[in-house]
Each structure stands twice: as structure tokens, then as C-alpha cells.
Amino acid sequence: MSTTDYAIEVTDISVSYGGVRAVDEATFKVPSGAIVGFIGPNGAGKTTMFDAISGFVSAEGGRVVINGTDMTNMSPTERARRGLGRSFQDARLFGSLTVAETLACAFERHTKRWGSDPVSAMLWFPVRKQERSVHARVDEIIDLMGLGAFRDKFVNELSTGSRRVVDLACVMAHEPSVLLLDEPSSGMAQRETEAMGPLLLKVKDATGCTMLLIEHDMPLVTGVSDELIALETGRVIMQGKPQDVTNDPRVVEAYLGTDERVVARSGAISNGRRKRKAPVRTAKPKAVKPKATAKKKAPARKKTTATRKPAAAAAKKKKTPARRAAR
What we know:
CATH class of the largest domain: Alpha Beta
Mean pLDDT: 80
Number of helices: 12
Order of helices and strands: EEEHEEHEHHHHEHEHEEHHHEEH
Strand content: 15-25%
Shape: globular
Number of strands: 12
Low-confidence stretches: 268-280, 322-327
Number of domains: 2
Distance between the termini: 148 Å
CATH architecture of the largest domain: 3-Layer(aba) Sandwich
Radius of gyration: 38 Å
Structural class: alpha/beta
């Protein structure tokens, strides 16, 4: 495979924070049009690797070549203009704008400046033309991402999963040829996570872009990726087909472990489809009835003076006739 067949080539990239080596001479290549997933434990250097590729941190050494262009010394803005897109774990959007307005802002870089023709700009002719063009492109990307039901809703009214899709749509508005996705299913509900895989495949088929994907959800990342790259302590320890990587002893020891319930925590995949596991039902504990306690007998009621007087009076009446007869 020639150099031009690779969308991105990373060679001996190293990044340190103080005395900590976050990325240690990492090297890998990604073919054009492929989806490559990055896996590894927390602290393995996955996000730092993406930061170095996109230019948000300075690498101590190595090279980053994207679509045949060396971008090692370019700023993040220059890399974005040359076709590199990036999403982050925390989607920061304009909560007071609707979905359509947010996407229109994302298309701003594609609008033209009309300073050379002040008369046309004063009459708003080019502005109206540009607005119609932006609206048409917003409709296209809303249809692609399946956001039609949320078009006129404010971003702060959406669920976490819907906001993640809007964030991905904003990145796609820049028309990247290489797309870096940092945990796109982070914070999503189970059903939303299951819908993310088909959406990524749909975006790839529609745009032809190359995707690099960091993800901890193993069924998701193995289901959409053509290859996996496993990292540990900043080093690439394995690259290959998903089945080969997930069965590699080094990857199992460093990240996956041997508990299949943990590996397939969001459901198993069979024939390209995710199967949801039935919930484990446990018998309900029987309610323990409290032991009956013997009722205490009420103390015997003492005779009072008031109760004694009627009895004495009755006895006195009975003796009276006998005494009279004796007399």
C-alpha cells in the first residue's frame, strides 16, 4: 500500500506532562476510508494521542501526516482547514439556539466574504444568496443525522444522546476527510448507544471520511471498526482486526480481563446486530413476619372506698329483719 493510500500516518509521537510520559513513541497508519477504534484503560494516552494529532498539545518528537501533508508543526486551525475534524468528550453547544441555528453557525466557515463589492453587500444580495445556501445545507445534514424531529428544539432541551448527535453534525458541517471521535457514546442511555453504531456507518458511507474512534463500549467499537489499536501506558501494543486484538493475551491482561459480562456490558453483537441481554432476575426475599408478643395482663383493680360502701350497705339491710325478729 502506497503512502497516498493512508489517510493518516503517525510516527514516533511522544507527549509528556512533567515526569509522566502520556504518549511514548506511538506509531500507526490508518487506510483511507477506514474506521479504526482505539481501546485501552483510562490513562493509556488515547485522548492525549488525539490532542497531539489535532495540534492541541505539542509533541516532543515524531511526525503527523494527514492525506500526504505533514501537519506536525501546524496549528489546530490550519489542520482543520486541511480536512481534520475533532469531537470532544464534552459537547459544548449553544444551549439557547435551536438545532437548525446551531448547525447554521457550524457552516459559517463555508460562507464567502463580500468586502470587495460594497454596493452588493449594502443591498444584501449576496447575503440572501448565502443564507439560502446555508439553509439548504442545514436541511441536508439534518436529514443525514436523523435530526428532523429536533430541528426547532433548543439544544438545552435535548437529551445527552441527542446533543452528542448534534455535536457530531456540527463537526460534519466542516466536511472533514479525517474525523477524530473521542468517546461519542459517553453519557448516553443504552438505547442511544445502540443507535450510535448504525449512525457512524451511515455517516462514513455518505461522506467517505476516515474515522478514528476512542470508545470503551466494546460491542460498539468492535461492531463498527475495521481495525482496532490497543494502547497501554502511551504505547501501541497491538493493531489488527477486532477479533485478533480483543483475543490478544496482552490486551486481555492490560484492559479487557476475562469476565465476558464486563466486556459485553452494553449487549452482545451477532450477525452485525446488537443483542440486548435479558436482565438477571433474582428471587425476592420472603418477608419475615414479626414474632407475636404476649399481651401483658392489666393489673388487678384495687377496691376503693367508693366500691366498698355499697357492699356494706347491702349486708346491713339483710341483717336488719333478723335482728327485729329476735327482739
